[in-house]
Structures are given as C-alpha cells and as structure tokens.
What does this fold into?
Amino acid sequence: MTNDYRPMWTGLGLNLEAHDALLKVLGEAYQGTFLSQKNHPEGMSYFDFVMSEVHGLRIKELQDVRSEGRKVVGTFCVFVPDELILATDAISVGLCAGAEFGFDEAERFLPRNTCSLIKSFFGFKLNRVCPYIEATDLLVGETTCDGKKKAYEIFKAIQPNLYVMEVPQMKTAQDRALLKSEYLRFKEELERLTGVVITAERLKRGIQLVNSRRKALSRLAVLRAADPAPISGLDALLINQVAFYDDPVRFTDAVNKICDELEGRVGAGEGVVPQGAPRILLSGCPMAVPNWKLPAIIENAGGVIVGEESCVGERGIRNLVDDNGGDVDTLMEAIVGRYFKIDCAIFTPNPERLDHVMDMVARYHADGVIHYALQFCSPYMVESYRVEQELSSRGIPALRIETDYSQEDAGQLRTRVEAFLEMIRK
Ligand code: BJ8
It folds into this structure.
C-alpha cells in the first residue's frame, strides 16, 4: 500500500492487530494465486493495483466522499438494485466476504452448520477487520435464503444500521408486485438517508451507469468464448469481484481497456493456455474475495474457466435495464423487470437457471461443468442435482463439489478436479 492508512483504520474502529493478520493472508494469497500466472494481460495491472489498495485507497475515497455528506451503502446480494443507490449519489459496495476469518466468534452466534459466506461476514464484523462494513451508512440485507434471513436478525443487534429487504421466492404476478413494493420501500429509505429525491433524470443516470458496467463485463465474458481463452478464469473472476466495490465509471473504463487488449489476443490467436485445454464452466454459489480456492485448483491442473454461472459472474450482469422511460414509475418498472429475471436457487421452481447453464455451455464452448456449492447452502446444494441431471441428459460432463472456505479439503479437491479434467481430455 502506498500510504500509512493506520490512522484511518483506527478511526473506523478496526482491530489493527487482527486486520494486519487478515491483510497478510490476503496479500500472500493474491501473490501466490494471481501474480504468478503466465500471460497475465497488461490490463490486469489496474485490478492488481485495486487489490493492493483494497483496504487503503478505496476506503479513503469512501471516507472522503462521506466527509462531503454523501453516503455509502453496503449490500450482500445482487437483488439490491445499485441503480437506486447511485441515483441518490450514494456509493454502493458489495460486502460478501470470502475468507475463513473469525469463524470461532461467528459460531458463538450461529450454528456451526451455517454456510461460510454468512459466517465470514459475521467473523469480519466481530473481529472488526472489514473497513467496508465500518464505513457504511446503511447496510442492506435481504430475505433470500433462510440462513441469511435468520442471521440478519442476530446481526442487527451488532450492526444497527442494517435494513432488510424482502425478496420473493416464486415468480408469480404477486411475487413481482412484492418485489416492486420492496424496491419502492427501498427507494424511500435511500431518499430518507441521503436527503435526495430520486427524479426520473437521476434514476436514468443510475441505470445508465450500471448498464455500462454490465455491458463492459458482458464484453469481457464474450471474449472468453475464444479458443484459446485470452484471459484466465481467475483474472476474469477477480474483475467481477472488483466490480462490487470499485467506482463504477473508473471500473467500466478499465474493463473496456482490458477488453481492447484481449480482442487483440483473440485476433492473433493468442491465449493464456494452449488451444484445446479443457474448458470449464463454473456454476453455483457466488465467490467473494478472497475465495479463489477452487478456480486456482482448476486452472493449476491445466483447465481454463471460461464462464461463471454465478452472481459474481453472468447471473449478476445478465440483462440491462431499459432506460427509455420518461418518468420514475416507468423506470422503476424497468428495474423490477430486470431483477425479477434473476435465477437464484432460492426461487422455486427455477427452470431458467437450467436453461442458462445449458446456454452458457454452448456459448462459451465448455467441455464440462463444475457445480460449486458452499457446504450447508441448501438452495444450491439441492439444485445441483437437477443441474447435473440436465447436463448428463445432454452428454455434458459434470462434477458436483461442496466445499467451504478452509484449505483442509484442497488436496482432495485437487484429486477430484484432476480426474475430471483427465476424463474430459479423453
Ligand atoms: S441472488 S446467490 S447473491 S442470495 S451461499 S448465503 S444462498 S446459504 S449468496 Fe446469493 Fe443473492 Fe442468491 Fe446471488 Fe445462502 Fe447459499 Fe450461503 Fe448464499
């Protein structure tokens, strides 16, 4: 990091000793996983820099913005519409945590059999190691899976600025009406928080900012259809992870720049792996920073990940919001229409997700699918059965993996992934 941020971290109430330990682990993991890759595109230097300053410069930017009176809103789920947050000039940051940190403390509040993602944000909070949580003026939870929904009841006592949004579980007309009413309630909450009234003009600007970010990420996704793939799955995942907390305009620009470079690679037939390397679609739970275990295992074993059917991936960026409406209600309808299409496994039934997995296999020329579910995540663990069935009915190789944030099963996962890649190669 370029500066001494310790006074800022102290001001945010961080536990400096625990925070140093976290940064050390994060720095080593990043160094070993990303910077040692072959053919790392030049355009990744921006994202390497963002990662090196993940708890430094970006937090300082948030604090500077707050001192001007603007607000920071933290989110845990892609159902929370960034368009509304940006329409109030507030900043949106994704808060999902991907490290096994503070789990002992988390387990004082939560059952051991809780997914790592939930335990991780509890652990980060209880250990006071996440400057993002501490820099938020409003934290938005949502009633997606049972684990999160019940955990927020407990989290509220530790983090009083938590607001919970209800998310429907089915896709009927009543469910759509519920989502709309929840988005209108959220709009009011944001207006109260920021003192800004969301006009059609503001909302349009918010929509356009998020659409531009999604378009850039979709451009990156499409380039990965090339064989050889011009970028590793690890780098592409990192870009998708950074999307959740970087400034949207600066981020979009950086993604478009790396896409220009990758287009050159595709045109020249250059890639990060030899042509014909096994191409894998990852499908399932979202992967938050620094959860890189499985992708690193796959790519170190000679495979290349060509797409993520995940919220930190295509599920989070698919579909734009129509920005043609001239009034707030039309624009709100367009936002609801876009988000109501999200095919998270919390929905029942959820046939769209199966269609999307098959569609992604075809578009990115995947040779096989690795379904990734966090242990104790019932929605994705249960749904993996149907995904596997659908894939096998079409003769597409599939591997189901259930894991957590620990490194304990790394050896066993490596063996299973290597055997899977070997089978695909034959
Ligand atoms: S829209 S995937 S971001 S809910 S892994 S906490 S589901 S037990 S993260 Fe998600 Fe929104 Fe859905 Fe996407 Fe629960 Fe499963 Fe844990 Fe999960």
Observations:
- Residues 160 and 223 are 43 Å apart (CA to CA).
- Residues 2-425 form one domain.
- The radius of gyration is 21 Å.
